[in-house]
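Thread: sanity check for a docking pose with adenosine-5'-triphosphate

Original post by kr_44:
Hi all, I'm comparing my docking run against an independent structure prediction. Below are the sequence and the ligand SMILES. Could someone generate the full complex and paste the structure tokens? I mainly care about where the ligand ends up relative to the chain.
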Amino acid sequence: MNACIKLNSVSFKYDHSIVLENISLSLHKGEFLGLIGPNGSGKSTLIKLILGMQKPMEGEIELFDHPIKQFKEWPKIGYVSQKANTFNGGFPATVFEVVSTGLYGKMGIFKWLGKYEKEKIMEAIHLVGLSGYEKRNIGKLSGGQQQRVFIARAIVSEPELLILDEPTVGVDGKSESEFYQTLQKLQRELHVSILLVSHDIGAITAHVDLVACLNRKLFFYGKPMEFELNQTQIMSELYGQNIHVLKHNHGGIHYVK
Ligand SMILES: Nc1ncnc2c1ncn2[C@@H]1O[C@H](COP(=O)(O)OP(=O)(O)OP(=O)(O)O)[C@@H](O)[C@H]1O
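Reply from moderator J.T.:
Ran it for you. Here is the predicted complex with adenosine-5'-triphosphate included:
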């Protein structure tokens, strides 16, 4: 099976502090990997390494079976950042316009949208369940709907791998469950591989094929069932002993120190 992401003994430090130590994991085609860990555990840094924004101090990263240094097919990767949650609501752009910017990487900024591109944009908007909202100003949408616009922007160029960094922060329970349904649809219908960073362990284990628990080191990497069997031990290693379990009415579980 082909790996979209392969990390082999990767370590990284900012200045003098080691943030990631000896991380090895893989994500294969069509798989859904959930990455969890406390604040400051290195999750966003790991994503930056995978996106080539930082270089590992040690170890190797491969994307689609190519060493990252030789990898050039960046349009194969769609990325939704944490910042999509803090989007400026006053920004004067429609849903259609925001999603169309996802094609710039493939076609350049100044090229006019043809019939084919317009169809792709409408398809992406439909896939995230926002048909009928094309002309709506993005600032007039709810947080959950805005989040889906950013996913549509990330998938409009038909990436094979979608990376999402804490996309459901600040989004209510109903929008969150719609969000997971959207991701499962992408995985099932388009065979997109997904790497999702989240704090919501309950939601993650319910939807992913693989769980990775990070706190500088990788404390667990395996199937959700295996994680659930050893959850108490893994969570106390990951977060320390003093954790409390918070259950949400939408079924998600959070751990807080
Ligand atoms: N540019 C930087 N320079 C120096 N240190 C940094 C930089 N970015 C992050 N760090 C530090 O690296 C560590 C890991 O940060 P990172 O943002 O990867 O964690 P995270 O798990 O994504 O956290 P959160 O869940 O809070 O977003 C933290 O201690 C952070 O303060």
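The chain has a mean pLDDT of 85. Hope that helps with the comparison, let us know if your pose agrees.
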